[in-house]
Design a protein that fits this description.
mainly alpha; Rna Polymerase Sigma Factor, Chain: A; about 65% helix; about 0% strand; elongated
Length: about 210
Amino acid sequence: MDSSPLKTQSRPRSAEAWSALTSMTLIERARARDDEAWRRLVELYSPLIRHWCRRRGVRAEDLDDVVQDVFQAVSASLPNFRREGRDHSFRGWLRGVTRHKALSLLRREAPPGLGGTDFLDRSLNVPDPAAEAPDAEEKALIGALYQNALNLVRVEFEDRTWEAFWRTAIEGRPTADVAREFGVSPAAVRQSRSRVLRRLKDLVGEPPLD
């Protein structure tokens, strides 16, 4: 239950929403083979994986196979993922897994004379377009990822807690102004904002709004 100072009367929650109320993060739940957590992980990140694959030159007819390979690798390697520092995000780790699987496909499809280790070495030395600044499509996909995450966590918070988060974190309004509107302290507004941001981090595996 939300214990924020901005708490109001409880709102009814769906069974799915109740299942999301856990101290474990989405990644931790996926590690534990939680089917719902895994479904959400796939739903949130599949569009980005497809985009990274296309930027690496994966053909449309091969996309489904590569995406499946990526998630199989993620399932096997997820227990070893650790976020260490601001720059080590789950999204960055997933992008690296995607690049590896795309390169593996390219190596398998390399013409005679360019196969094996020589081809892989050449491919690894080519600048990774997915590691460059996000293009317009990737920015839109990242925005959609966070919008989906917002929709998932919305039901976990009371109206005023959510409004305090939305007005300060999304609309960029000063904390003091929002506190005056609600008749609470700025610290209460900051706490509400922090609670929602922490849940978003739990869901997407990295600090939101970077």
